[in-house]
Amino acid sequence: MKRITVILVIAASLLGCNEGKPSRGDAPRPRIVSFSPALTDMLYDMGLGDHVVGVTTYCMPPGNNPPPAVGNRFKVSAEAILSVSPDVILSQQNPDDFAAVGKIDPDVKVQFVRMETFKDIAETIERLGRITGRDEIGRQRKWAFLERLERVAARVKGRPRPRTLFVMGYERPSTGGSGTFIDDMIRTAGGIDAATDRGYSGWKMLNRENILAMRPDVLICQVSDGQEPAARKYWRTLGDLPAVQQGRVFIVTDRRWTIPSIRSAQYAGKLAEMIHPDEPGRSGR
To answer: Which pLDDT value is given to residue 12?
Structure first.
């Protein structure tokens, strides 16, 4: 009764800001707030989107009737989260950020999910199956993910491994070194992560000097839609890079390249085509 009263009070106070948002009153238990674009993608790709009652402003749930956005990593509102009556909050950020939720409604569980590497992704797939009571789906999707990665790796086995750099942005680029799924993706696709090879680990900001020292043979640059011409122009100014000299700079605009999820296996396949354009069997099959 206490919980119902709390939720009703919060819902009433948020009536104006939630007006017009879709209702998820028929969602099965557990009702999930997915506070991570990566976790939202995974839940929907696993066919578990019916459990999702709230997402962040950065999430991209499919369909024309998405669950309401209840905040993001920079704006955690207990009232907004509790207005959708969740049982579980899944997040990649510090659980302490949700302390106010627990103070208002201790029944809401906050579960931290680590997803830095392909191994983490595989374990999370299985974990999401357990959380939603659909263990078999979790196991099946986990092994399908791992099998797809194995197929990509098998396609490029024994081929030369060019130095490859994946950066986000161009004027102030960043990259992932060892211990990240970016490094895993490059290695699976048949390349050597130029950042890891220079001793970088985790997520790092780069500058022109760093990149020139890495001397990548292949460079993939992720930018927002509309930034492609400016990015191409910028990389042409680094004419000493082997990737520029050989015409092997690729500009991508799909946000999901850098969102760890089940789809990361698909992107590993696409990356293999960039690194090894003449390799047999394409499109990550």
So the answer is: 39
Identify the sign of the CA torsion 259, 190, 229, 175. Answer: positive
DSSP-assigned beta bridge partners for residue 72: 75
- Locate 43 and state its tokens: 């839940």
CA 258 from centroid of its chain's CA atoms: 6
This prediction has a pTM of 0.88
Q: Quick one: angle between helices 118-131 and 37-45, nearest 10?
A: 60
Compute how many other C-beta atoms are within 10 angstroms of the C-beta atom of residue 94. 12
Amino acid at 197: D
What 3-state DSSP class applies to 131? helix
Residue 96 zone, left/alpha/beta (φ > 0; ψ -120 to 50; rest): alpha
pLDDT confidence tier of residue 64, bands split at 50, 70 and 90: confident
**Which tokens hold the place of 226?**
């509309």
Contact (Cβ atoms closer than 8 angstroms) between residue 54 and residue 11? no
Beta bridge partners of 204: 175
Domains of the chain: 2-113 (3.40.50.1980), 161-275 (3.40.50.1980)
Query: Rounded to whole angstroms, how far apart are CA atoms 32 and 18?
Result: 18
pLDDT in tens, 167-219: 999 999 999 999 999 999 999 999 999 999 999 999 999 999 999 999 999 99
Selection from 276, 42, 266 nearest residue 149 by Cα = 266
Q: What's at 47, amino acid-wise? A: G
Structure tokens at 107: 């029944």
